[in-house]
Design a protein that fits this description.
By secondary structure, the chain is α+β, with helices and mostly antiparallel strands. It has 8 helices and 19 strands. α3 (122-168) packs antiparallel against α4 and α4 (171-207) runs antiparallel to α6. The longest helix has 62 residues, at 238-299. It is elongated and about 170 Å long.
């Protein structure tokens, strides 16, 4: 019986303990835990009063754009199809186009004014120069022929005109026409003399041409060497003698061919000189005949009458056509001379093309071995002062911006650096008629060193709308605004308690607020934040560096820490959640 009673007692005690435990859990859950959850704690975070400039502005973003300059080849050196075919067949002897020997830069490279970009081969420079000089010489001959043709045909037209007018007007005109015809013959002789003299001048230039004389000396030297070698060869050595004899014949043939060509020039000069002498004699005879014909023309003075009402128009058309031919020949000569001068200026003394400005190379159109057969851009580069950024500014902010304003530029690629910029243009019309947001494109010119900036880089642009310089300031989160509009901040007293100290504030950019009176630089203040007990307070203290003040059932009027809310700042009230500044 005693054992049964003992077991029963133990069960009763266990049941009572379980009931009491359950009752304690219920009481904690229903009464104690909600009370604990409603308890609030204030967390203080330390901050120092700082000194500096406060800036308020508008921030937009955009990408860098580059204006491109270029090095251009604009010498229009062209040839007809027949000359092109000859060039392809004999490309080793002459070059009709400039050939690039070396390219000194690569795409993406920064160049300075005067840096070497391209170099042309000397052979191609000499070849093009010879062709252009030949073109000038040919143009001079063509102009001389056009002048001669003009003089000849003009005299003929004049003679016809005078004759026609004389036939329809008076015999005096017939007399003048006769005299003009005789004078025409003399002018024809003078014109022929001019053409012959032009040919002589051309041949003389060929005879003194440096390349021709050098080739003549070279062939003569090779012939003398071959002849000397042949004379020194033992005739008993048949093979050697035959080989040296063939070399001698080859050298002799080449020398005689060039010598014959030069001799043909000399013969032509001699023949033209003789023909000029003959023409001078004919001119003397014609002048003598002119006096005799004058007497005959006077005898026919009274009988020559014909109708020539259209003579004046015919004469005018003829002179205009002849003058057009002369003008065209003159223009061809002028163009050839200008092209030669432009070529010399382009290749310079050393055949090296240099940069005419500083910038970033964006494109290279040629490489070593290429020939400049057409005009166009050889190299493009973005100049250092041509970087700009275009952004869209809303209609609410555009009124704060003017052309010439200075802005701050922060490149996303260089977060710790900044550049200055200037507003260079503002588009006065909206960027789109269909967008719900009205924006205006604003162009910013990037100032300063742009050597590390590339096209397409993104950047943040800040327009300063207001600022104060060299002031004391704290985080706006530290300002506690009372119901009466007074402002104060939390400080620590001698006992270590946090108390509110009045302060006079000034300018604010929303993030920082100016301290006008009440503190000095380096003073310590505190930012108060209320925290619900349901949040891990120890974690918050470790994360925010704050100090727990204890349970808060109420504070001084205007502290902003009562009723479970954060202290008010600048007239705004924090939400009921923790916000770490």
């Amino acid at each position: 019986m005693k054992k049964v009673k003992k077991k029963t007692l133990i069960k009763l005690i266990a049941a009572a303990a379980a009931f009491l435990s359950l009752l304690g859990v219920c009481i904690y859950t229903v009464f104690i835990r909600p009370a604990l959850m409603n308890r609030e704690t204030v967390i203080y975070m330390e901050e120092q009063v700082q000194s500096g400039d406060l800036v308020q502005g508008i921030m937009e973003n955009g990408s860098v754009e580059m204006a491109v300059s270029s090095v251009t080849y604009d010498l229009d050196i062209s040839y007809d199809e027949e000359e092109e075919d000859e060039d392809e067949e004999d490309d080793e002897e002459t070059s009709r186009y400039l050939e690039i020997e070396e390219v000194y830069v690569v795409q993406g490279q920064r160049v300075e004014e005067g840096d070497a970009l391209f170099k042309f081969t000397q052979d191609s420079i000499d070849g093009v120069r010879r062709n252009l000089e030949n073109s000038v010489s040919e143009a001079r001959v063509d102009l001389a022929e056009a002048d001669s043709e003009y003089n000849t045909q003009a005299q003929t037209a004049r003679s016809t005109y005078n004759s026609s007018v004389a036939e329809s007007d008076t015999a005096q005109r017939t007399y003048d026409a006769t005299m003009s015809g005789l004078q025409q013959e003399i002018n024809l002789l003078y014109a022929d003399i001019q053409v012959l003299q032009a040919e002589i001048d051309d041949w003389n230039e060929m005879l003194v041409d440096e390349d021709t004389l050098e080739q003549y000396d070279d062939l003569k030297y090779e012939l003398e060497k071959a002849e000397e070698l042949l004379e020194e060869t033992d005739t008993s050595s048949v093979a050697a003698y035959v080989a040296n004899y063939e070399e001698y014949q080859t050298a002799l043939s080449a020398f005689e061919e060039l010598d014959d060509l030069l001799q043909s020039y000399r013969d032509g000069i001699e023949e033209n000189t003789q023909e000029i002498l003959e023409h001078n004699e004919e001119i003397l005879e014609a002048q003598a005949a002119l006096e005799q014909e004058e007497m005959l023309a006077r005898q026919e003075y009274d009988s020559a009458v014909q109708n020539g009402s259209l003579a004046d128009d015919v004469y005018g058309y003829t002179l205009e056509s002849l003058q057009d031919s002369v003008d065209e020949a003159q223009q061809v000569l002028t163009d050839a001379e200008e092209l030669l001068a432009d070529f010399e200026a382009f290749v310079g003394e050393d055949g090296v093309i240099c940069a005419d400005g500083s910038g970033l190379v964006t494109e290279i159109a040629y490489e070593a071995g290429d020939r400049l057969t057409t005009t166009g851009t050889m190299l493009s580069y973005a100049t250092e002062d041509s970087y700009s950024i275009t952004i869209d500014v809303s209609e609410e902010d555009i009124s704060y911006i003017s052309v010439g304003d200075t802005v701050t530029i922060e490149m996303n690629a260089y977060p710790d650096e900044s550049w200055e910029g200037t507003v260079s243009a503002i588009t006065t019309s909206a960027d789109s008629d269909y967008s719900t947001t009205v924006n205006y494109p604003v162009t910013i010119h990037v100032e300063g060193d742009t050597s590390r900036i590339y096209g397409g880089m993104t950047a943040d642009i800040t327009f300063v709308t207001d600022c104060v310089e060299d002031v004391l300031y704290v985080s706006s989160s530290a300002i506690v605004t009372g119901e009466d509009g007074s402002t104060s901040v939390y400080v620590e007293d001698a006992e270590g308690n946090k108390i509110l100290q009045p302060v006079t504030t000034g300018f604010s950019n929303g993030t920082e607020t100016e301290i006008v009176e009440g503190f000095s630089e380096g003073d310590t203040i505190y930012i108060a934040s209320t925290v619900s007990a349901g949040i891990d307070e120890e974690t918050l203290r470790e994360a925010g560096g704050g100090e727990e003040e204890g349970e808060s059932s109420g504070t001084e009027e205007g502290s902003g820490a009562a009723d479970g809310n954060f202290p008010q700042m600048d007239g705004q009230e924090f939400p009921d959640q923790i916000a770490m500044p």
